[in-house]
Amino acid sequence: MGRTVYLNGEYVPEEEAKVSVFDRGFLFADAVYEVTSVHGGRLLDFDGHMTRLKRSLGALEIPFEVDTEAMLEIHREMVRVNAIDEGVVYLQISRGAADRSFMYPGEDVSPTIVLFTQTSEALKPKNPEKGISVVTAEDLRWGRRDIKTVQLLYPSMAKMEAAKSGADDAWLVEEGLITEGTSNNAFIVTRDGTIVTRELSNDILHGITRAAVLRFASETQLRFEERTFTPKEAREASEAFITSASNYVMPVVSIDGVQIGNGKPGPVALRLREIYIAESSKWAV
Ligand code: PDD
Question: Is 72 exposed, middle or buried (0-12, 13-18, 19+ CB in 10 A)?
C-alpha cells in the first residue's frame, strides 16, 4: 500500500509504524477517532470534526489537548504526502499504553495519536445514481453513541449480517425506533416532503454531515423535523438517505426489501447531495 502514516509526531512508512501491545486502544477500545473527507485534495468540515474530537476526548477524560491549527497542518501534510485527491483522513487518539488495568492510568501515560489516509478507490463508495439498500437490525451498541469511540464491533457485525442478506447496510432499531445506520445517520423524506432525522441525544453519533445537511436544508427553505421514526414510517416514506463523511449524502432505495418511493434515488436526496458537496467545498481547507 506504501502509505505514509502519522504516529506520535512522526511521519513514517506504514510498515514501520508500531504501536504497543499494551495500548489501551487495542486492549479496551479506549480510543476515539474522526474521519474527515478529502474532496479535490481539500478537507471538508474540518472544524466540525475537531470540535467533536474535543468533545469525545473530554467525555472519556483522555488528556489530549487538541490544537486545531496544528491538527490541520498534520491533516494537510497527510493529504499532501499521500497525494490524496478524493478519500479520507482517519485520525485516532487512544489513552496510550499502560499495564492492563480497568482503571485509567496516571498522567505519566501519554495518548497515542495515529493518522492515515484512504483513497476513495479503497473505500469503494456506492454509486449515488443507484443508491443503497438497507435492512433493519436491533441496535445492540452501548448507550454512549454520541462519543465517537473505536468500539465498532457491533456496527461491523450488523454490516456483515446485512451483506449476508444481500443488502448494503443496516439501519439500527431500538425500542421500535430507528437510531441511525451502522456508520451513518439515517434520514427519510415523508410523503408531504418533510425531511426527518432522529434528534440528537446519547443514542446517536452527532454527525458532522448530518448537521451540515440540516443547515443547508434550512437555508434552502426545505422543511425538516428532528424526531424519531419507526421502520414502518421509513418503509412508507417517499425517500430515504444516509449521511456520513465517507458517503456525503447517499440515497437509500429499499428498506427490508421494500422499495422506497419508485425504487430510484429521490430528488431531495440527490439535491441535498449536490448542495452538500458544493457548499462544503466552498469552506474546504
Ligand atoms: N462514521 N453515525 C455513526 C454511528 C457513524 O459511525 C458515523 C460516521 C456517522 C456520520 O458522522 P459524520 O457525518 O460526522 O461522518 C453517524 C465514519 C464515517 C466511519 O466510521 O467511517
Answer: middle
Tell me the one-letter amino acid at 158.
A
Q: What is the CATH number of the domain that holds 167?
A: 3.20.10.10
Q: What is the dihedral of CA 45, 63, 56, 103, to 10 degrees?
A: 160
Would you say 138 and 173 are in contact if contact means Cβ atoms under 8 Å apart? yes
- 235-to-109, 128, 254, 255 alpha-carbon distances in Å: 49, 19, 8, 6
Amino acid at 104: Y
Q: Tell whether 93 and 14 lie within a shared domain.
A: yes
**Pair (138, 256) in one structural domain:** yes
The model carries a pTM of: 0.96
Task: Decide if 71 is inside a domain.
Answer: yes
* Domain interval for residue 230: 132-282
Q: Identify whether 148 is a catalytic site residue.
A: yes
Residues 6+ apart with CB under 8 A from 4: 11, 12, 13, 14, 78, 81, 82
Rounded Cα distance between 24 and 165, Å, is 34
Query: Cα of 106 to ligand 1 centre, how many Å?
Result: 31
Atom of ligand 1 nearest to the CA of 247: 18
Q: Do 115 and 67 belong together in one domain?
A: yes
Q: Which residue in the list 124, 126, 148, 232 is annotated as catalytic?
A: 148
CA 236-234-36 angle, to 5 degrees, is: 145
C-alpha cell at 238: 417517499
CA contacts within 13 A on the Cβ side of 79: 23
Q: pLDDT for 205-226, tens place per residue?
A: 999 999 999 999 999 999 999 9
Query: Among 237, 231, 258, 253, which Cα is nearest to 174's?
Result: 231
pLDDT per position as a tens digit, 94-128: 999 999 999 999 989 999 999 999 998 877 778 99
